[in-house]
Amino acid sequence: MEIVGKLHPLLVHLPIGFLIIGLLLYGWKLVDPTRNFGEALRPIFLLGAIAALLSCLSGLQLMDSGEYDVATVTRHRNMGIALAVVSFLFWFRLGQQSLNKRLPFLAISLSVLLVITGHYGGTLTHGSGFLTVDTKDSKKDRKEIKNIEDAILFGDIIQPILSEKCVSCHGAEKQKGNLRLDDSLKISKGGKNGKTVSGNADDALMLRRILLPPDDDEHMPPKEKGQLSSDEIALIRWWIKEGHSFSLKVKDIPKDSSIASVLKRFQQAGPQQTETIEEKWPEVAAADPEVVRLLRKAGIAITPISNTSNLLSLNLLNLTDSSMRIWEEIRKLREQVVILKADLPFIRDEHLKNIDEFTHLRKISLTHTQITDKVIQQLSALAELRSVNISNSHVTYRGLEKLVQLDKLRYLYAIQLTDSSYAQQLQEKLPNVEVLVKPFDVPILVSDTTEVVVTK
Ligand code: HEC
Hints:
Elements: H1 2-6, H2 8-11, H3 13-31, H4 41-63, H5 70-94, H6 103-126, H7 153-165, H8 184-189, H9 205-211, H10 230-241, H11 257-269, E1 276-279, H12 289-297, E2 301-304, E3 312-315, H13 327-330, E4 337-341, E5 363-365, H14 373-379, E6 387-389, H15 397-401, E7 411-413, H16 420-429, E8 434-436, E9 451-454
Parallel strand pairs: 1-9, 3-4, 4-5, 5-6, 6-7, 7-8
Antiparallel strand pairs: 2-3
Helix pairs in contact: 3-4, 3-6, 4-5, 5-6, 7-10, 10-11
Heme C (HEC) is lined by residues 165-166, 168-170, 176-177, 179, 190-193, 196, 205-206, 209-210, 218, 220-222, 225, 228.
């Protein structure tokens, strides 16, 4: 039966074809009554109506696949059914000479239904705004980068990101907020509120807008549009912070270790930035919206891992030593959190009290913190962990040994293990884990920029 559903996108072109030909001939006949298409008109509409009916049936098969936006798919279905009904009605009435006066109105309804059904169908397959999106700004523009050091930061890295995520609203066709981001001169000029990239990185209007919570009306890109990944945000911030040059090459710009690994990932990922992983995710209750609101207000970035799951990714940005009291609130999300990033220099063991209650945690990053082996002891109870990054923390080789009991662990980053014999021993103890002890050999991994496919 599945195959019937798969045929839908092909099948729908039949009613469109028959009905348009039929409507055109009928219109011609109305304008020029001497035209007589004889027996042709009725069979054309009958074929159109049957094809519309078959399209409906095949569409209904496809509808339950869960791949589509429910509201749009429902409208598309209702319009499709109406279209099939009206097509049959039209065919039937064509045969009844007496009712011909009302037929032109029916023809108009049929045309309108055809356009609306087709439009919703297009929205389902191509995304909303498929009629207006400038396709030449698509991802395909992103060139493959052979050596990231020789790349021009703006031209090869930043502009392709802006083209992909911003230019549909800030380009030649639309200039929302009076701002264009499609070339360097326009970016320098800024928008209705003046300069977008000048000043200290975090004050620059562009970054402020990007870092606003997704629910904020001023968040960029608007929340229903493709969002920037955390790597892309890191690259834009770095570019602005280092003076937003339009000509400098990557090798001529100072970088710290975190931007170096972002660059590395960017190069490896090439034109395809996101990686798809198939994972079975647990079903959990939705997080308390009040807690989420409070945490967001404190500057914590909270993102759902997909729009069909209640699981969350948390990044403790913007917290300070004293605001870590908020950990008690974070603990309320222990069911939902699967990715936790707390790469903040003041973080100590006591801040992460009861981290072992976060039973669904898959990925944790605690780089540049003061945590010790005590936290690792707690992490060793988290059976779902896939990736642990404790680079540049106070964790030692002894502590890391405890992770042997984590069957699902795949990546361990510990660049502080400068003594290579320790690294060697650890690797032998953890044969299924990729132990990474050099700053720059970071592979592409399941990060929070990952597009997650939920399989039940
Ligand atoms: C779906 C359309 C859309 C997309 C995509 C989009 N924006 Fe916007 N942007 C707007 C609208 C609408 C405004 C003006 C209204 C407002 O100020 O919120 C705006 C305003 C702005 C402003 C303020 C300009 C000024 O001077 O007031 C900045 C900065 C900005 N966007 C940056 C970006 C960046 C960076 C991206 C890509 C990462 C982006 N936008 C993607 C619609 C969009």
